[in-house]
Amino acid sequence: MRHLSTKLLAGTVAGTLLVAAAAAQADRSEWPSNFTVGTASQGGTYFVYGSGWANLIADELDVSGGGEVTGGPNQNLALVHTGDLALGLTTMGPAAEALAGQSPLAPGVPMDNVCALFPMYETPFSITALSSSGIESISDIPDGARIGFGPAASTSDTYFPAILEELGVNFERRNGGWTDLGGQLQDGLLDVIAFAAGIPIPAVSQLEVQTDVNIIEFTEEEQAQVLEAFPVAPFQIPASTYSTLEEDARAVSMWNFAIAGCDVPESFIYEVTKLTMENNDKMRNVHRSAETSIPENIVHNTVLPFHPGAARWYEENGHEIPDDLKL
């Protein structure tokens, strides 16, 4: 009798495992055969973070995928909304504008097929010039200065020109990838680069190795003026970020979130969120700014609805999603 019970138990366990395996297989059958993460230009943090995150997903979940160079947050919102990309990276300012139909890439078109996945990091707005230029403060930037603002329609290009205009700076506007603009600064073709990117910015780190640079902070008055006029928060760039800095540098910042098409299968996004949120050590290996890519920081998204797959993981793990951010 005991022998029979053992057999029955073994059969029950085996049957349960087969059912579970079949369910898992059925779940995966809805997954995309491949995916692409929209990043930004090479030499910027988005490219490093997004490409590394894509590789982590591909390796751990056994799905073909990778990062793609794009124009940055605004373009990523548009490409995810249309379904041309499954995943992307964006900042909260452009996300709010896109949802309201105010994207510079598609005026009047509300991008409502974009859902939030997880918090990435804050994007500080920082300014870099060659030490040889003599520019040590924002007020030192000469009239007509040639300033590189990153890729056209990027977060930096959307907000930084307006921020500098608010502070009374007159300039010639230049666009391009961060690596290219860094080279132009070093060659004397630009006077200043105005970066909005996660730190450390690879292009700045590279410049530090090759030449002497000044990383220019906001004064208290300038910071207060910008906080009043734009959807940004106060920020301190830690002195440990760059060898050039001897003390923390005052700045402003905007939060970044990973995004997905709201129609991307829930089970896939659940596993992507689970992988990302439960492996912060691996994310920090991708880029050290991922130190803040943790569930507690979901509170910094007050704009985009969370993807149902992401929301399910958060709520299963004790993190509340406000009703107005649920689909």
From TrEMBL:
<keyword id="KW-0732">Signal</keyword>
<feature type="signal peptide">
    <location>
        <begin position="1"/>
        <end position="26"/>
    </location>
</feature>
<dbReference type="Pfam" id="PF16868">
    <property type="entry name" value="NMT1_3"/>
</dbReference>
<dbReference type="InterPro" id="IPR011852">
    <property type="entry name" value="TRAP_TAXI"/>
</dbReference>
<protein>
    <recommendedName>
        <fullName>C4-dicarboxylate ABC transporter substrate-binding protein</fullName>
    </recommendedName>
</protein>
